[in-house]
Specification:
Blueprint lengths: L3 H21 L14 H17 L8 H19 L3 H12 L13 H6 L3 H9 L4 H21 L8 E2 L2 E2 L1
Antiparallel strand pairs: 1-2
Helix pairs in contact: 1-2, 1-7, 2-7, 3-4, 6-7
Length: 168
């Protein structure tokens, strides 16, 4: 079970594969100049999102990963409030509080949580501004990649199957 540095490295490795896959798609999203932000900004954002979601499952314990996640969430929340986006700030605050309602390696370390926790990234644009849905899906992919890396490095994705004493 890696510490926060291991989870950051895992998120970077998995997100590099994600970005690489997007980059080789002919006419793909990283080649589309009609995006809201430049490709370089989008890729940088992917890495930030992947790292934060790579740390997310462990923020239910007092750890360096928890401090990094909450410091980033606090800064983002303050920025959203100052920018007048109170609803977005409220959703971010709600999301940031969710891990403390369970035990460590509980629901935050499940495959279902990996899919559901980042889902507001897609659901909110779908509900409030459908023009953002394409970009939101790409960001959701980065969040999913980061979360997946955490579960992968903690052994929650590839567990041994025991059949009559044999391991597969």
């Amino acid at each position: 079970m890696p510490g926060y540095k291991g989870h950051i490295v895992g998120a970077v490795i998995c997100n590099t594969a994600y970005v690489g896959a997007l980059a080789v798609l002919p006419g793909g999203p990283l080649h589309d100049t009609s995006n809201l932000v430049s490709s370089a900004e989008l890729v940088a954002g992917f890495f930030v999102i992947a790292i934060l979601f790579g740390l997310f499952p462990d923020i239910d314990t007092n750890s360096k990963g928890q401090h990094i996640f909450y410091a980033t969430a606090l800064a983002a929340d303050i920025w959203l409030i100052l920018d007048g986006r109170i609803e977005a700030a409220a959703f971010l605050g709600l999301l940031a509080m969710t891990p403390i309602v369970g035990k460590h390696r509980g629901w935050t370390h499940s495959k279902l949580a990996m899919i559901l926790i980042p889902s507001p990234i897609v659901l909110l644009p779908y509900l409030y501004n459908s023009q953002l849905i394409d970009t939101a899906l790409l960001v959701y992919g980065a969040a999913l990649t980061g979360y997946f890396s955490h579960l992968l490095f903690d052994g929650c994705i590839t567990k041994y199957i025991h059949i009559k004493g044999a391991r597969y």
